[in-house]
Write a structure and sequence with these properties.
By secondary structure, the chain is mainly alpha-helical. 56% of the residues lie in helices and 10% in strands. It has a three-stranded antiparallel beta sheet. The protein has a three-stranded antiparallel beta sheet with strand order 4-6-5. Strand 5 and strand 6 form a beta hairpin. The radius of gyration is 24 Å and the shape is globular. It starts with 9 loop residues before the first helix and ends in a 12-residue tail after the last helix.
């Protein structure tokens, strides 16, 4: 900030402050006119929702148009806005130490990792299913639950109903999955663009694991063996039990 002139009077300083306040008020009014969806966008992001180009389209357009402004305003609120190259916005979690994730988010993460593991085992290319109409049926969800029963139970998802109500439907709420009504009594689910958020986590864990294996081959002290997506998910969610631990009811 430039130094004020030595001979500037108190009256001049007061006028200067009034000018700044007036300019700030004018700027705030302009922001209010331009950022018409600000409250709706912030409420969605703070609730952990993803805003994508295929869902919440109006909000996505405003975020894209005024991304720099939103980044500054959200940073002032203690958040970090992120944009994924596939086309969605989200707030960077403040704690990426997975043991400190809120229980509800851990349940949602467990559900999507179970889905990824199940689709991988079936030989289905997950990325080709994102935003496509290939449905995931209730029978598929039952098979996913059975495959990952131990991990899901440790996270409080001890039944298929709980897995759907607290895991899958949370993913629908935040935009990772979409719910479709096939008929009056049948429901199916599809993957939205924000599924890439969790695919990236799997990739990063797999890359870290590969680096650790390479270090082990060089004689460095790492005690890792080949692991599946299921085991990588357990590491992310910190749900691998000790031998003496009891499974919670």
């Amino acid at each position: 900030m430039d130094d004020l002139p030595q001979d500037e009077s108190a009256e001049d300083l007061e006028l200067s402050l009034e000018d700044r306040v007036r300019d700030a008020r004018h700027y705030a009014q302009r922001l209010e006119r331009e950022l018409r969806l600000f409250s709706r966008i912030v409420e969605a992001l703070e609730a952990g929702r993803f805003i994508s180009s295929t869902d919440r389209i109006k909000e996505y357009r405003e975020l894209s148009r005024f991304q720099d402004t939103y980044e500054v305003l959200l940073r002032m609120m203690g958040h970090e806005l992120r944009h994924h190259t596939t086309g969605f916005y989200y707030l960077q979690p403040r704690e990426m130490s997975q043991a400190q994730l809120p229980q509800r988010e851990r349940m949602a993460a467990a559900a999507i990792f179970s889905l990824i593991e199940h689709l991988c085992d079936k030989g289905l290319p997950i990325e080709s299913m994102i935003t496509h109409e290939e449905p995931i049926l209730l029978d598929d969800l039952g098979a996913m639950f059975s495959q990952c029963h131990d991990r899901l139970t440790r996270l409080g998802l001890g039944s298929v109903e709980s897995f759907i109500d607290n895991g899958i439907r949370r993913l629908v709420d935040v935009g990772v999955m979409n719910e479709r009504r096939l008929s009056q009594d049948k429901v199916a689910y599809t993957l939205g663009l924000p599924a890439y958020f969790y695919l990236d986590i799997c990739r990063n864990l797999a890359e870290q694991h590969q680096q650790q294996l390479e270090a082990q081959e060089r004689g460095e002290d790492y005690s890792y063996s080949d692991r599946s997506v299921d085991e990588l998910a357990d590491e992310f969610l910190n749900t691998q039990p000790d031998e003496d631990d009891e499974t919670p009811e």
